[in-house]
## 1
Amino acid sequence: MFSLINRKIKRMVLRQQKKRPIVMISDTTLRDGAQMPGIRLEPEHKVQIAKALAAAGVHSIDCGFPAAGDSEFQGVRAIGKAVKGPVLSALARTHQGDIDRAAEALSGVSPLKRAITLFIGSSPLHREYKHSMTKSQVIDTAAQAIHRATKQFEIISFGAEDASRTEPDFLSELYEAAIQAGAISIGFTDTVGILTPDRAADAVRRIQDTVKSMDDAMLGVHFHNDLGMATANSLACVKAGANIVQGTVNGIGERAGNVALEEVVLALTLYPDEYRKRTLVDSTAMYGLSQLVAELTRVYPMDNKPVVGRNLFRTEAGIHQDGILKNPDTYMPFKPELIGAGPVTLVLGRHSGRNAVRHHLEMSGMEPTEEHVELVLDYIKTGRHSAGEQAEIDGFLERLAPFMSDNDLPKPASQNGVPIREPA
Ligand code: MN
């Protein structure tokens, strides 16, 4: 049926798509992300996350590796049944068995919405130690697998694993063979997260300059964050011409993780002129996605995680609090609403100032005098007060409890409904 769509038409559609000033976002939270030690996602959790990704507007979802085991297979199958919108892709080695499992897992999905991602290690280390293959054996193996997969899939993407440590000339040869065999998207992967932005952009430019059939395929990039440069690398590649960025929510994934999609999406949202491309992903969905993935994976982003860490919108420092009360933009890089978070919280702790104390007391309906503010501030900072002030302090603290810093909260003598956290 869809084999009737001949290559010519496919090529035309692809070339049109490549001209659009859009960076496509491919999510691999459920595959590379879920490979992180300790994460266990049941099929229904995967469906929940995939639905949220679809609602956010990602272009494609790497749903899992069906040949890796029954739970992986079931996860991909469940997503295929329940999730509409993005292209749903299954990972496969170049083995026929893997291709069959991928096709089976996505059998219910319409041919134009299901994809296979075939991969093979391309670097000298992978060729020698993993595959025991020569360069030409790697090329032949990849091309044959891609060719066989065209019988079951219209959308085939090919990833050269450890591409960033592969000889550039050989890599281009491999990509050319993959496109000739039927891949419509090729992936440049920095599997061990070793690149810098300049090196990454150079590699992407070189691929575009040397792969003859590059006009007939999308170019995707896949970065890991071992050197803390995954976001910068991905964006450098977008500037250099990459069409697809693949990453994970909260940057979960092997070792230091994958590039965090929310970081890439926010940068593209803030600076479309700089990248001359925009994203169709809704930045206001990022905070909700981050929370959902954190809850289901039980991997919580650090408080200071870029873009979605909870400290992005909390401050304890008196000078920052004073500025934010006068105009939130004074100490905020972007409004919390832009990622669907907020409002800003002024945390009360050792570093706080009187304006934040007064603000919180007033917001709770009190009309504090200067003396009240001083009394409370002094107590928050030192944990001390004179014996006669206990009842009064407790009254205030009850109102202020939700804003107290977890670390600095001095322990009131009486409990009176104020939550007291014992040090862990
Ligand atoms: Mn990876």
## 2
Amino acid sequence: MTSTIEAVAALVGDAKRIVVFTGAGISAESGIPTFRDPLTGIWARHDPEKLETASAFREDAALVWGWYLWRRVQVAQAAPNAAHQAIAQLARTREVTVVTQNIDDLHERAGSADVIHLHGSLAQPKCFACHRTPAALFFEEPIASEGLRIEPPRCPRCNGKLRPGVVWFGEDLPAVAWKRSVLAARDCDVLLSIGTSGVVFPAAEIPIMALHAGAYVVHINPAQVAQPSSRELCLIGRATEHVPALVSLMMLTDMLPS
Ligand code: APR
């Protein structure tokens, strides 16, 4: 009787093109809170409408900017975990496209190259007025604690307020990132969906597109986020439990004569 992880290792082992689609859950074990987990999620303490929208920024730019600075400090203090590292290791032997909903840089710091950020990135503020991204962050970032109101710096080109370079509720996803993600999803043999509740669209469409295009989709999550079917499998558990185990199993079979 083949276990699910052995079946997944065989699928990934045979795959030519793999998409790794990640959500906040993959960074949870690096100490970065998710959004919707009932007790530990960020939204247990904050109303996203008050912090993650353009109107919130218009209303109180200092509150929003201060909150994102606090999140940048959290990310800077976090380290990539074994799941991030296993994904980078997988890409050394196969064509892997990482598509993430996360705005942290833990995939990059684990060694993944060319990560597609569907919801933008904390690392790249942009101007709220002219939308340009300053070439270099030229201001001394105060170390923020949660809830501090900090006036955002000004754009060197038009003197508009800088805003976080992330996608807020009601905003479109970056066009190039979306197009690349759709192409990768439609072209892959296996899509690993790791640490996402799959409730925020259009990003949550990516695994669905892969499935409809004939790929296998594997959900790695402590929660049962999908009903298994002929081409959809679930590895119930934490990302750092299953992803390293999956990659090690694959490396083992790679080494064995086929
Ligand atoms: N390993 C794997 N998955 C985990 C772990 C873990 N250690 N811990 C929690 N999870 C799972 C939870 O069970 C949940 O399904 O991670 C998922 C986190 O879901 P959300 O908090 O909804 O985060 P995400 O799916 O990334 O949200 C999508 O919503 O608020 C917006 O822009 C934000 O990008 C975010 C988007």
